Amino acid sequence: MLRYYMTPETREALIAESNRIIAARAAAKAAKKLASTLHGDLHGYSGWDLWGSMPYAPQESSAAPKYQGLMSFIAAHPAR
Description:
- There is one protein chain.
- The protein has two helices and no strands.
- It has helices spanning 8-39, 65-76.
């Protein structure tokens, strides 16, 4: 069996690449979570009511009063 010895430079490059991949996955997961917060509650009508803030994703925000209410609330109450 051929042994492979890693040079310090190769090891550092491998660690940097691994950290970059981990950060990219975390950023993608955070973006997906944010998108699901704003648009993930897109559902059709249930037996009782429409639960989401927008009935469908490509809907204009001007035609979605629940979405407008959420956005105005967020604008009026900035994060600290």
